[in-house]
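Fold it.
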Amino acid sequence: MSTILVTGGTGFVASHLIVQLLAAGHTVRTTVRSKSREPELRELIRRAGGDDARLSVFVADLGSDAGWGEAVRGCEYVQHVASPLPAKAPKHEDEVIIPARDGALRVLRAARDAGVRRVVFTSTCGAIYYGHPSREAPFDETSWTSLDGEMSAYVKSKVLAERAVWDFMAREGGTMELAVVNPAGIFGPTLGKDVASSLDIIARLLRGMPGCPDIYFGIVDVRDVADLHVRAMTHPDAAGQRFIAVSGRSRSMLEVGAMLREHLGPAARKVPTRRLPSWLVRFIARFDGALRQLVPMLGKVRNVTSAKAERVLGWRPRPADEAIAASGRSMIEAGVVT
């Protein structure tokens, strides 16, 4: 069993990843920005059935060098999951880009200096398909987003961070290895009341909206994203590779609403059944920072394929509707949606 650092332990993906690593018998370290978050994090892990006796919590922030050397010392692997994800569009994109890019480089330098064998970096499908003409064929790991395209500050930060990570490895990585996971929209069960931005979409649908924006996104369950991170950490063929995490084709928000109604019954009675005109969404987004981040997705259908992860790593994702249903159920159970 190994000692593994997972950055950003209270995050949606990171918390599920910690649970899976502990269940596999590993010793896990994780980082939080404030020591006050540790009790909450341990409660999340225990609620999910994890044994937090082998979990150590360190304070480290992506905006500072402090704490990273101590957190990573003695680790064989690092799972760099943490990245700033604003609840609404920032006033300036650098508020997101700088900590995402520079924070990733801080983690990589600390890992290299500590003799870490491999780092798994959490990117996004947004680093693959923005800025390209519409096409029927799905995008794969060979594609890179063009920064000339319209995208949110968050997506841009992930593109620049992943680029910086690969450049660092080519110049300064030494013998350390890198694997990258590029998830689509991440759904599935939340472990607490703080919900990820993707789950906010489900919460809005369940609470009732005037209609569904004309947006499409790939879907993947957070438990499967965590599983892919574990596979990418140790598989010999994962070094130097990117792996897309998605379950099937992209789905419209209307289709997601239909999944909620099918699986949740009366609990999904407020879910809208009509599509909102895109001009109206753009207008409302002027006053809704969270909705503003979805504007670059309006009317765009982008498909990606997880064939590489399935072929190389033996990864098998859950069906998309299972991830969506689990999202809704868990938020209802947690009292996020009433």
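The CA atoms of residues 261 and 323 lie 14 Å apart.
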